[in-house]
Amino acid sequence: MDNQVILTAFLLTLVAGLSTGVGSLIALLAKRTNTNFLSFSLGFSAGVMIYVSFMELLPQSLEIFSNEYGDKMGNLYMLLGLFGGIVIIALIDFMVPKASNPHEIQGVEDMKSNHRLRHTGIITAVTIAIHNFPEGIATFMSALNSLEVAIPITVAIAIHNIPEGIAVAVPIYHATGSRKKAFWLSFSSGLAEPIGALIAYFFLMPFWSPTLDAFILSAIAGVMIFISMDELLPTAEKYGKHHISIIGLVIGMLLMGVSLFLFI
């Protein structure tokens, strides 16, 4: 595979992961969260991920599997990949205690009132890193298949990493009293995504085949669908008004559909 493609895939993964630093800056510098904007952005992210999953990744996976094993077995293997990805990300999510789960996001305005978070700072940084591994693999592997798909995925993951950065920075600030340390630990937790890309490069690339390619595409779709349904949309509801998040969802799907149509 072209080294330039691999390097671009790494860079996209790095951009997505380090956007947690943007979230930490918002948490430490802003007096209040712009809830409507965050709600719209999270809905937009979910729209991009859901559309790409159902309209691009799963059809590609099904086509490859069908060419290799026939239509019926191709459908079966695509479904195994889809739900395999969902199971993997769900198990990672469910193994993290709710109190220290970075997906249980707190607002910036809770920084002074929620004293319970003082002792969960380091745990939160570690758990968000665990959550980011499969996202890093998803970004990297999608970039190897198609930059037209990978770039919107990178933007979507970067957007949803911003409130995760907030969730990391707030308890770390409580735990240490240091804004500087809260920022750097939150920023560093995003490095799990490029590390996930490295794991994909060293452990998946040597065994690359059409079957593995198809399975990864369907598994990535499963990961992104779960993240959208379990994290992005519920969090958007908590942050802002229901209709704002749905408008973001529809616009995300619309722009993703238009952008893919232009590349056909």
Provide an overview of this structure:
This protein has helices at residues 3-18, 20-29, 35-69, 71-94, 121-145, 147-176, 179-189, 192-203, 210-239, 242-262. With 264 residues, the chain is mostly helical. The protein has one domain (3-256). It is globular, with a radius of gyration of 18 Å. It starts with a helix and ends with a helix.
Name its key features.
about 260 residues; globular; mainly alpha; single chain
List the helices and strands and how they pair.
Layout: H1 3-18, H2 20-29, H3 35-69, H4 71-94, H5 121-145, H6 147-176, H7 179-189, H8 192-203, H9 210-239, H10 242-262
Helix pairs in contact: 1-5, 1-6, 1-8, 2-6, 2-7, 3-4, 3-6, 3-9, 3-10, 4-9, 5-6, 5-8, 5-9, 6-7
Terminus-to-terminus distance: 23 Å
Largest sheet: none
Rg over alpha carbons: 18 Å
Helix content: over 70%
Query: What general form does the structure show?
Result: globular
Order of helices and strands: HHHHHHHHHH
The proportion of strand residues reads under 5%
DSSP summary: helix tally: 10
Task: Give me the secondary-structure category.
Answer: mainly alpha
**Count of spatially separate domains:** 1
The parts where pLDDT drops under 50 for at least 5 residues are 106-119
Mean pLDDT: 79
Count of distinct strands: 0
Concise overview:
With 264 residues, the chain is mostly helical. Helices cover 81% and strands 0% of the residues.
